Amino acid sequence: MTPRISVVIACFNQTRELELTLTSFLQQDFHHFAYELIVIDDHSTDYSARDCVGKLRKTYPNSTLLYVRQYRPDGGSYGASARVKNIGIRLARGDYVFFNNSEITQAGETLTYILKTMDAASEPLRFETQAAPEPEPSAAASRRTCPDVVCRS
After folding, report:
1. DSSP for 49-61?
2. Which DSSP letter does residue 134 get?
3. How many Å apart are CA 16 and CA 48, to the nearest integer?
4. Residue 131 burial by CB count (10 A; 0-12/13-18/19+): exposed, middle or buried?
5. Which of 65, 139, 146, 147 pairs as cysteine with 131 (C-beta 3.0–4.6 A)?
6. Where is 10: in which H helix or E strand?
7. Angle at CA 37, nearest 5°, toward 126 and 30?
8. Which residues 6+ apart lie within 8 Å of 8 measured at CB?
9. How far apart are CA 23 and CA 40, in angstroms?
10. Any idea what DSSP says for residue 68?
11. 87-100 in b/e burial notation, b at 16+ Cβ within 10 A?
12. Contact at 8 Å (CB) between 75 and 41?
């Protein structure tokens, strides 16, 4: 069965946080077959993220939990999230793609809320979180936001 939501989680040397984040998704009020978790390791200095994913696969055998390690000849550095997100999008099979950082846990109803909101929309939309402090009124034109959910068609 094709998942409705693909969750792409980028990580770089954040195994402790990654385990908490993955567990928050694996304990959602959402059927495991309806979403997939895709962890993209941006060339961490060790393989602990891979081990974390392997451990959680055993704990949650009915979930779809993928691990991909990006090789970087420069040895990797945190902050190249566009490249990591593009890898995740290429691997995603869901109707919707949700980007989440490895240090951000989600409430148990997050995926249900996203799916309900996206399905009810009459046109493509995206959820946004503010990436920078609230700008001054004069700087409103330079306000930046980062998309967390994209619609695939």
Report:
1. HHHHHHHHHHHST
2. P
3. 9
4. exposed
5. 146
6. strand 5-11
7. 75
8. 38, 40, 84, 85, 88, 89, 91, 92, 97, 98, 99, 100
9. 16
10. E
11. bbeeebbbbbbbbb
12. no
Q: How many angstroms separate the CA atoms of 91 and 24, rounded?
A: 21
Q: How far is CA 126 from the centre of its chain?
A: 14
DSSP conformational letter for 136:
P
Contact 11, 44 (CB under 8 A): yes
**72: three-class secondary structure by DSSP:** coil
- The total number of residues shown for the chain amounts to 153
For 130-135, the CB contacts below 8 A with 24+ separation are none
Structure tokens at 56: 């959680």
Running DSSP on this structure, what letter comes out for residue 36?
Answer: E
pLDDT tens track, the chain, 153 positions: 899 999 999 998 888 899 999 999 999 999 999 999 999 998 888 899 999 999 999 999 999 999 999 877 665 555 567 888 899 999 999 999 999 989 999 988 999 998 999 899 887 766 665 544 544 554 433 333 334 555 444
| Contact indicator for 133, 145 with CB cutoff of 8 Å | no
Provide the 3-class DSSP secondary structure of residue 128: strand
Integer Cα distance of 86 and 25 in angstroms? 21
Q: Could you give the 3-state DSSP secondary structure of residue 100?
A: strand
